[in-house]
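Q: Given only this backbone (213 positions), what sequence would you predict?
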């Protein structure tokens, strides 16, 4: 069964290009398009996409406001940002609102397909500049109260954390560690509990902050 997508962008030509590209991906289906966040939210009353491809710069209701709304009212929808912006403040704000992926609009079609597949698999897709912003922000707070606080991790947990801070999928991490995907899921869930985290982004940030990545 195809994965349902929505495209939210105020540029008709760009939307047409994305539609044309997605039509070559048999695993994905566009259920609707919207010119801005407000129109997108109205259409959610009829359709519920699995992924939304979200532009940042739009009239009426922009991408940041829409990502914030989704974070609070429809967190089950996975958000991939499509933008030309590499602005640090914007990126960090969007990460706070739980976006699953970030793609520059001039990315290669192959990268776009990889991003869709990665997010559909329950993982995150961030380009290098997003990771760099995350690292910079984390280094700024390296001496705050959120330090490790004496939490003890075993060697396998540390190995998993290092790999979780990369762009590898959980299946690829399982292969590298010679473990089953179910065991990797257990490592992830145990670390969520132990470290008080809720997402892979949190695991990656913890790894970076504690010099594990």
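A: Predicted residues:
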């Amino acid at each position: 069964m195809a994965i349902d997508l929505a495209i939210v962008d105020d540029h008709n030509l760009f939307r047409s290009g994305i539609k044309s590209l997605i039509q070559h991906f048999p695993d994905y289906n566009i259920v609707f398009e919207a010119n801005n966040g407000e129109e997108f939210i109205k259409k959610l009353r009829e359709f519920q996409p699995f992924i939304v491809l979200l532009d940042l710069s739009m009239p009426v209701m922009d991408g940041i406001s829409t990502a914030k709304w989704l974070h609070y009212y429809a967190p089950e929808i996975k958000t991939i940002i499509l933008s030309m912006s590499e602005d640090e403040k914007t990126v960090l704000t969007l990460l706070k609102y739980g976006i699953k992926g970030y793609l520059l609009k001039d990315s290669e079609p192959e990268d776009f397909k990889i991003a869709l597949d990665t997010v559909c698999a329950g993982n995150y897709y961030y380009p290098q500049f997003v990771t760099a912003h995350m690292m910079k922000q984390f280094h700024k707070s390296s001496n705050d109260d959120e330090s490790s606080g004496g939490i003890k991790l075993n060697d396998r947990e540390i190995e998993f954390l290092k790999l979780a801070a990369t762009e590898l999928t959980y299946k690829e991490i399982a292969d590298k560690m010679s473990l089953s995907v179910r065991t990797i899921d257990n490592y992830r869930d145990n670390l969520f509990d132990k470290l008080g985290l809720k997402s892979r982004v949190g695991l990656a940030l913890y790894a970076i902050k504690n010099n594990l990545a």
